[in-house]
Amino acid sequence: MIGALNEGISIILAGDTLLWLALGIMIGIVLGAIPGVGTSLGMAILLPLTAPLEGQDAIILLAAIYLGGNYGGSVAAILINAPGTAAAAATTLDGYPMSRKGEASRALAISAVASTLGGFIGIGFLILISPIVTRIVLQFRSQDYFLVALVGILMITLIARGPLIKGVAVGGLGLLLTTVGTSPLGLEQRYTFGTVYLFDGLNFVAILIGLFAVSEMYKLMTESGGISKGEFELGNEIVPGIRDALSRPKTIVKSSLIGIGVGAIPGAGASISTFIAYGEAVRSSGEEFGGGNPTGVAAVEACNNSTVGGSMIPTFSFGIPGGAATAVLLGGMLMHGLVPGPQLFDADLHVTYSIFFALFLGNFLILAVGLLAITRVGIVTQIDTKYIIPVVLVVALSGSYMLRTNWVDVATVLFMGIFGYYLRENDWSVIALVLGAVLGGLMESNLNRALQLSDGSFDIFVSRPLSIALTLMCFLILFGGPIKRKISETVGG
Length: 493
Hints:
By secondary structure, the chain is mostly helical. The protein contains 20 helices and two strands. The protein has helices spanning 2-13, 17-33, 38-46, 55-80, 92-100, 104-137, 142-154, 156-159, 164-177, 204-220, 238-246, 249-263, 270-285, 294-318, 324-335, 349-372, 385-404, 407-425, 430-453, 465-492; strands at 181-182, 189-190. A two-stranded antiparallel sheet has the order 1-2. Helix 3 (38-46) runs parallel beside helix 15, helix 7 (142-154) runs antiparallel to helix 19 (430-453) and helix 12 runs parallel beside helix 14.
């Protein structure tokens, strides 16, 4: 193992590998910051162009785009409430309120440091114990995937603001949105109204763009001046932001472990793990969230980039992509003759370690770019919104059309923008709707599959130790708070 690691490091330091790593990180940051474009689309476009490269250089370029994109999604999320990627949706909850208070550079600095630390933990974990984790991942079945998604949904009880019943109702509406289109286990059409444009359902990225970016632009139309309503001094908030991130080691480590664990589950990914990490931060800190709490930004961003390391586990071990980006990465591996499976951890272990170590180094570049360049972009929050709004709307609508070249996605963005504005103005939980829309498809397909395997018996959800543990976790999220208060009252009384 040590010999393979040394050989992998020598591969990184030879030739142009470091240049491809740096190029991938920069491309990823830019793609991740553009709402609707995202890393998977950029990786897919660039995939054919990697043909002339050496196998490990091509995979390092694609993996670096993935890593950089996960960080880049937070930039637009913090500055204009427009998550560049689905994983950055949770960043908007406290990151954008910080920008509104004139603390955009501080939030961006927290994001850069937390993302870097999360990336170090995720990739370091991957290098050290990936053979062990692969055995754990193999234990997951359909019912376990469903229960993991249910854990994400139940986070509504922790992070939804306002009356709980309103959060649950809106979360249910989000789940209903995922039923539009073709049934995952059959050919019947649901709520398509006879039009082929709805056969593939509603794209959850388009829903996110509408709920966050477009609804915020509608809100800004009623205001004057810039996005920031507080005093803004360029560069003065960077050091406090670094201090904010470094002073929360427990949150960052815990969130990173959540990112690794959930990211290693095929089909889960950062869009689930970040909300779970945010919900855990809310549960454990006892602080107020949703109004610009640095802990919320640190938790989400550490989880976001550590998920990259977790998602590599099923991709490299079994050839099972965890999401769209890792699916493109898998295609690149096969294109360049790297076959996922035991060989990557045996004869080709040096190549595997070269990729992992390159991503480890890539986090240093994210830190440098984030602190030296991206934090300066906070000046955008001072520009008059009459210039910001048209640009954001054009980018949002163009990006939504590029998702699937389907005009339904453009209509989805516009409608969800109006609906999101209504929810905000009437104190309904937007994030509950997002959780439902993001997790609904995963829940439905795995619930149906699990019930088919058990002939309709719900006993399958408590038939194995892993399933029982996840079921207990769901129970504790729902009833842990009331039970804890009851015990405290009994002991105190």
